[in-house]
Amino acid sequence: MSATPPKRPRKSFDASLGFTRLIVEFGVLSSFLFSLVLFVNGTVRTVTLIWAELPHFASASAGKELLIAAIEQTDNLLIATALLIISFGMQELFVGRIGNVPGWLHVASFDDLKQKLLGIVVVALAVKFFSVAVKWESGPSLDLLTFGAAVAAVMFAIGLYSYILPRLGHHAADEPEAPAVQDT
After folding, report:
1. Which of 12, 86, 166, 184 is deepest in the core (most CB within 10 A)?
2. Is the CB of residue 97 less than 8 Å from the CB of residue 135?
3. Contacts (Cβ under 8 Å, ≥6 apart) of 79
4. Is residue 1 within a helix (H) or strand (E), and if so which, with residue range?
5. SS3 label, residue 69
6. Helices marked H in the chain — which ranges?
7. 145 falls in which pLDDT band (50, 70, 90)?
8. What is the reported pTM?
9. Does residue 80 come out as left (phi exceeding 0), alpha (psi in the -120 to 50 range) or beta?
């Protein structure tokens, strides 16, 4: 009589794909690192520019230079924030809920993550247009108007997509059935 070895339980296909969450961690980490680097870079650039402008701080050119730098810094911070939101959102969607973050930063679905990012993109586009308009010295105003129209078109498309997005996930199968009406 030979003893048969005990059967090992077979892993289900779903369980074997659990390692894919680790793959997502690479994206989470890279997005987080870019965000961190942009925040540090923006801080260093800010301090460097302010230090360089101190000797002629009261001049009109220094004021305009600081204004343009502040607008560009805002753009930089918005992109860094978007990358941070992507990092947190992907972590929550694929790995698990993150504690100790504000409630608005929690992501319930991929569509929720897209909505948060689209809002930042719209603001970043507005800031970019403002930056170009402030730097505008001379030249045909038609160029600035064309650039503004292009930015407005992209913002409109994002707004339309944001309006339609929640409705795309709404299927008739998800709705509860209406009670049947009986003929009397």
Report:
1. 86
2. no
3. 38, 124
4. none
5. helix
6. 13-16, 20-53, 60-94, 110-135, 141-168
7. confident
8. 0.70
9. alpha
